[in-house]
Design brief:
The protein is built from 5 helices and no strands. It is mostly helical and about 120 residues long. The chain is flat.
């Protein structure tokens, strides 16, 4: 019996649709989180990335051929804590206070769509 033909393009499109649907559900849940909860999540994500800095740097270099692993690792692992507000939108725009819609009161409105 012949195995079913699998169209990789169709499978990747369906996977992208499924991931987008899951992201929309996650966004709905995150909308209810306090700023402190969001900060803890972001800090945990940043910590996980710092812990994997060398491996991620090697992957990036292998995939793109740009830069070198040592410099990529140094850049990733030496970044300040996200909770210090020394970089990112909080430092650039001066405030991370959220409005009722979830958008930062000082962020450009064109970026408001991605906020939970």
């Amino acid at each position: 019996m012949a195995s079913p033909v699998r169209d990789k393009d169709l499978l990747s499109i369906q996977q992208a649709r499924s991931l987008a649907a899951a992201a929309r559900e996650a966004q709905k849940a995150l909308k209810e989180f306090s700023q402190e909860q969001v900060d803890r999540i972001v800090e945990a994500m940043a910590g996980a990335a710092r812990g994997e800095a060398e491996r991620l740097a090697k992957l990036a270099h292998e995939e793109t051929g740009f830069g070198n692993t040592k410099d990529k690792t140094l850049r990733t692992s030496s970044r300040p804590s996200t909770s210090s507000n020394t970089s990112g939108p909080c430092a650039r725009w001066g405030s991370c206070a959220r409005t009722r819609s979830g958008a930062s009161s000082r962020s450009p409105s064109r970026w408001a769509w991605w906020r939970p």
